[in-house]
Amino acid sequence: MRPISVIPLQLLLTVSLTVLSSSVAAQSYVGIAAGKISSSLQCKNNCQTSVANIKLTAGVDLGSNWSLESQLHIASNMKGTFDRINAKTDSSISHKGIDLAALCRWRLNDKFALFSRTGIAFTSSEVKNPAADSSSTTRYSAVKPVIGAGLVYAITPLTYLRGDLDLRQARSDGSNSNITGLSLGIQSAF
């Protein structure tokens, strides 16, 4: 069992906060979103590989079309008898993560904009594997690329409705699993 390294998470958080705090003259934004994530984990039975996900976003505009943002993701537990975990009974997997990404916007008009984002993501997974005689918990962590795209609608000049599609990888069973996230949320600039 490999313990979760907190150094990449602390480093990513420190860099994110430093960049955000150094941009006093730039417009900053925060947001919250809810949605679903789906995993490519192979499952034998009782599969629940698509679960609810909450995202908190903080970012800073670096110009009219570019932003730097960080997102915190917290997902519900995926459940099932997963192949690569060698589970004899149902297991549960929880995912948490933080990412730092550059975002490029293409304004369609005064109300709508498309965006794409690319960056790095630190993901932490916890696998709980109950068995008849004993139970075990294994933690995995990974730093992998994240890419995404979405649409923003301006409700007011400083409040936006935002839809995201994200693709990332996580280590949840000793090997990489693809995670696809879809979310809808609100974002406010200040």
Automatic annotation (TrEMBL):
Q: According to the UniProt entry, where is the signal peptide?
A: 1-26
Keyword DNA-binding assigned to the entry: answer is: no
Question: What cellular component terms from Gene Ontology apply here?
Answer: cell outer membrane
User: Which key words tag this protein in UniProt?
Assistant: Signal
Coiled coil region boundaries: none
InterPro entries tied to this protein? Beta-barrel_OMP (IPR027385), OMP/PagP_B-barrel (IPR011250)
Main location as per UniProt:
membrane
* Record domain Outer membrane protein beta-barrel: where: 12-185
**According to its UniProt record, where is this protein located?**
Cell outer membrane
What this protein is called in its record is Outer membrane beta-barrel protein
Q: Which species?
A: Undibacterium rugosum
